């Protein structure tokens, strides 16, 4: 349940920043596929990656958990 909430929040904040999955992936030095799998709940997320994503989306990590 938390995994799905985080995925939905990442997608929502990414769209608010007007970033594509490819653009976010490029900023994170990862693949678009990796971002897609996170947003579709097909891949887990480390705390470190959560922090990196939050930083690139200009939000605090806890905001992705709400």
UniProtKB/TrEMBL annotation:
Transmembrane segments: none
Alphabetical list of SMART domains matching this protein: HTH_XRE
Gene Ontology MF annotations: DNA binding; DNA-binding transcription factor activity
Residues covered by the HTH cro/C1-type domain: 10-64
Coiled-coil segments: none
InterPro entries (UniProt xref): Cro/C1-type_HTH (IPR001387), Lambda_DNA-bd_dom_sf (IPR010982), TransReg_Diox_bact_type (IPR050807)
Taxonomic superkingdom: Bacteria
Keywords annotated in UniProt: DNA-binding
Protein name as it appears in the record: HTH cro/C1-type domain-containing protein
UniProt source species: Staphylococcus pseudintermedius
Taxonomic lineage: Bacteria, Bacillati, Bacillota, Bacilli, Bacillales
């Amino acid at each position: 349940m938390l995994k799905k909430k985080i995925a939905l929040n990442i997608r929502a904040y990414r769209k608010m920043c007007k970033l594509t999955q490819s653009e976010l992936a490029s900023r994170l030095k990862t693949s678009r596929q990796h971002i897609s799998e996170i947003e579709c709940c097909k891949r887990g997320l480390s705390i470190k990656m959560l922090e990196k994503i939050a930083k690139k989306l200009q939000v605090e990590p806890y905001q992705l958990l709400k």
